[in-house]
Amino acid sequence: MAVTLPEATLAQYERFSLYNSPYPAHDEGCAIDLYPGTLRDGRTTAAPSPVSGTVLETRAVRAPSKPYAPEHDYLILLECDGPADLEGLVVRILHVDPSVEAGQHVERGESLGELVRAGFFAPWVDNHLHVGVRRPDQNLHRATGSLPLEVGVDVCPLAWDGTGTVVATGETYAVLDAPTHPTPGETFVGVRADGGGVLDGGLPHYDGGGVHGASQDGIVSLNGDRLGVADGRTITWDDVVVTANGESITGLSLFCARDADFGAKLICPDRTLEVGERVRVRVRSSDGR
């Protein structure tokens, strides 16, 4: 059983990703990360609810130990009464310090609390809500087991030749000015795979990724560089290295976005890229071929 998240839900957020995560909860696209803010507006703390419904429970949960983040996070369980496609299902939400409590009814878009950065976050990951959907008869507390998700929006694939100029940087990442969103705010876009569809995931710093809008059984590539092998929409990355101007970096962050700040995001905690620097990104086999 796959659950479709309608446009009204996704349109509240600037970005989303089904696969850009190292955690098993995202395997096969069974969870989605919803980003209320953009890369350049700072790390927003707003946490609009993706659905309407009644709060079943809130609880603190343990997070992986990281030197830069607390070891606890929060889980919110909502019995959904809207949108219609999700009515009667239970929505699990992580990374929000709740301002709501059990028995309270919330409307879609209403604040659930304040976004938090727990040990689940890599340092280059922006604030977001982690969302999964389950039937009420399922185990609602274990990390895995949510239903596969579909997105009820068309994601526009943007051709990208792997080049761009650095327009923003953080301690662990750099953002390029390409590809450019043609109609900011009107539709979601992402980087186009050679065979069609939009790429999603952390290449190759997370184990796998996905492709939206086109089934790609078989080899998936970008600008002629082989990335991995797809089974339906899910991709297993090859043993590859992403390079920027010929030097290896941690990887390429791939997601869907509707904001004007969209551009390729390079994960490079061990390398400094300067604003204004021209960059060419390639993907190579780790053995140099």
TrEMBL record:
Residues 4-151, 157-284 form the DUF8155 domain. Pfam families: DUF8155, DUF8155_C. This is Peptidase family M23. InterPro entries: DUF8155_C, DUF8155_N, Dup_hybrid_motif. It comes from the Archaea. It comes from Natronorubrum thiooxidans.
